[in-house]
Amino acid sequence: MLQTRSARAGAVALAACALLSPGARLAAQTAPAAEARAARAFDEAHKEGPLALHAFLYRMPKGADLHMHLSGAVYAETFIREAGEDGICVSAAKLSMDSDHHAPGCPAGETPASAIPDDQHLYDALIDAMSMRSFVSVTGESGHDHFFDTFDRFGDDKRFAGEWLDEVAARAEAQNEQYLEPMVTPTYKAAAAAGYRIGWSDDLASIRQQLLADPGFQANIAADRDEYAEILRQRTSIEHCGQPNAAPACSVAVRFLYQVLRGFPPQQVYAQTLLGFEVASADPDVVGINFVMPEDGYISMRDYRLQMHMLDYLHGVYPQVHISLHAGELAPGMVPPEGLTFHIRSAVEQGHAERIGHGVDVMYETRLWELMKEMADRHVMVEINLTSNDVILNVKGDKHPFMLYRKMGVPVALSTDDEGVSRIDLTHEYVRAAVTYPLSYHDFKLMVRTSIEHSFLPGASLWVRVTPEKLETPVSVCRGQLGAEQPSGACGALVHSSEKAQQEWELERRFHLFEASF
Are residues 87 and 185 in the same domain? Predict the structure, then answer.
């Protein structure tokens, strides 16, 4: 008697399963039923409302947060405490730190930060000024302006950056995250000074050679590598990583994105961008670069195409350096209509962006459907920041292109942007997505996989990439093994040779444990 197609497939699957280790065999046999139980639990939580969803999604593996600014991820309470420990003064009128003055020598109208907790009204006012807590838009101050003004209020004192990273990693570990790519701007003054001395011209190759020959620029490369290393050293020390009393946060892997400030003259932006490419080429802890500062700023808009031209040239020189770009963090009315028509396309086609941060104005791009198809075909991922897009741009719900990206097959993953400023965490973004959009448990699971797949970690992937991207079929040597404690055979060799595959393997192990709990 001839077997049916499904029966033959089942027999093949059973035969393949028999060749696996006992742990891998158990994982393969129980995975579909366990995922179905988790999906039913998600649906029940959805019926019960946001609180039940939070309880479910807080425990769920969430992979990576790929779009986060380290200083913006820190809560205001931490900055106030650190300022007090450092003896910094605080301006009560400006509601900002004054790092130029220290207690007891605070000028008139300023208070030692150490005394701020004794004045609840000032303490609350400072937190509100340094975040979006209690913010209500009024004439003269938009959510956009209040959000970006917070960064000037708390400053960016890198001496505490290891503490910031510990705070962010601990929060991530508690929510079952496993990998972070925080954006950090290390010192760039020597490089910028060299850029101004050399001056600006259209000859990018010549300027690059002159910058690389500058002793100050070369010293800046070494200084930046030391700065990143010191952040990691402090974090390791605080968390006792590698010691018997290691903190759980040690399990969260971290790599950095070099953050370039786009709102300055071209000679400075180019010098800092080149510095970023040089550091990322030499330092395995720095896996890529990104451009930051408000995209609607005067220089950001004026020089947008020029900055993409810089990236186009430098990508040709340093093709191994990954690029993620803030692009399309704009909404109608913020800039003239023509300003909404080209930023994302330019970032993808000229800036060589492998990931797009925000991408909110995509529906105003010229030939928008062609652009989204191109992004899907090229597997350009969009980092979705729902709360940030709401409070800065007033874009939310069906005004947000999140679901249109998904419909067009563009890879997407949820991220936080600045969780300290927004007073959120990654679970909050998952709950917001679940409440706002018709997403299933499987949809969330695929977005979580996407976050690791599109990390800039080196090495091969565990997934077969198809178009549109699904991430449902493992590479042949690992089929039937995902979810087990350890890979075996050729799959083990692949995993051990690839940092990305190691994180993907760990994610599937976590999903196996999570789904088995239902």
Answer: no
Phi and psi torsions of 289, nearest 5°: -130, 165
Distance between CA atoms of residues 251 and 238, nearest Å: 14
Domain shared by 120 and 163, yes or no: no
Return the SS3 of 271.
Answer: helix
Answer yes or no: do 95 and 184 share one domain: no
The predicted pLDDT at position 15 comes to 44
Q: Is residue 346 over pLDDT 80?
A: yes
- At 255, the amino acid letter reads R
Residue 326 is classified by DSSP as E
Pair of tokens at residue 92 = 């009560």
Dihedral of the CA atoms 240, 243, 248, 253 (nearest 10)? 80
- pLDDT above 80 (res 86): yes
pLDDT, tens only, 116-128: 999 999 999 999 9
When pLDDT is cut at 50, 70 and 90, the band that residue 99 belongs to is confident
Q: How far apart are CA 207 and CA 195, in angstroms?
A: 8
Report the pLDDT averaged over residues 163-169.
Answer: 97
Query: How far is Cα 38 from Cα 514, in angstroms, rounded to an integer?
Result: 8
The answer to the question of residue 254 being in a domain is yes
Q: Percent helix, strand and coil across the chain, each rounded to 5?
A: 55, 15, 30
Q: Let me know if residue 50 belongs to a domain.
A: no
378 shares a domain with 298: yes
Tokens representing 38? 């988790």
Residues 260, 123 share a domain: no
Predicted TM-score (pTM) of the model is 0.92
Residue 74 lies in a domain: no
**Mean pLDDT, the chain, whole residue set:** 93
Mean pLDDT for 84-101 is: 90
4: tokens are 């049916």
Residue 253, strand partner residues: 179
Q: What is the pLDDT of residues 458-472, one digit of tens each?
A: 999 999 999 999 999
Please indicate, yes or no, if residue 500 is contained in any of the structural domains: no
Q: Which domain holds residue 341?
A: 158-453
- Give all strands (DSSP E) within 151-196, no chain letters: 177-184
Q: 401-406 contacts: CB < 8 A, separation 24 or more?
A: 401/359, 401/360, 401/362, 401/363, 402/433, 402/437, 403/437, 404/362, 404/363, 404/372, 405/359, 405/362, 405/372, 406/443
Q: With CA atoms as reference, report the closest residue to 328 among 369, 360, 352.
A: 360
Are residues 189 and 299 both part of a single domain?
Answer: yes
- Same domain for 417 and 304: yes
The reported pLDDT for the residue numbered 28 is 58
